[in-house]
Specification:
Strand content: 5-15%
Largest sheet: 3 strands, antiparallel
Helix content: 55-70%
Distance between the termini: 54 Å
Shape: elongated
Number of strands: 3
Number of helices: 4
Radius of gyration: 24 Å
Length: about 100
């Protein structure tokens, strides 16, 4: 999901199932590039494909998206816990003024 084109494909598929050509028509990348991104999304379990005549129709895989969301939720939860621990460990009271000169006291 780190590639902007891959995210754009993911977002388009979130709106509706599409073929490679339909996606390529909506994006500033070639059909082969769309196919490569779809292969990675498919291999990662985020999209499924079904044959419709000679075309393959791609759609988001709800199970894969749920797994991705669960992973992000875990990462976010861990980050919030680490932030809370850091905040709890911070000293209380006014912070020293970094611009103050000791001789002014």
């Amino acid at each position: 999901m780190g590639d902007p084109s891959r995210r754009a494909i993911f977002e388009l598929l979130a709106r509706q199932p599409c073929s490679v050509q339909e996606l390529a028509n909506r994006l500033p990348i070639s059909r082969p590039a769309v196919s490569q991104h779809l292969k990675l999304l498919h291999d990662g379990g985020l999209v499924t494909r079904t044959a419709q005549g000679t075309r393959r129709i791609y759609r988001l895989n709800p199970d894969g998206v749920a797994a991705l969301r669960a992973w992000f939720d875990g990462v976010w939860s861990d980050a919030l816990i680490a932030f809370a621990k850091t905040a709890d460990a911070a000293p209380y009271g006014p912070r020293p003024d970094p611009d103050a000169h000791p001789e002014d006291s």
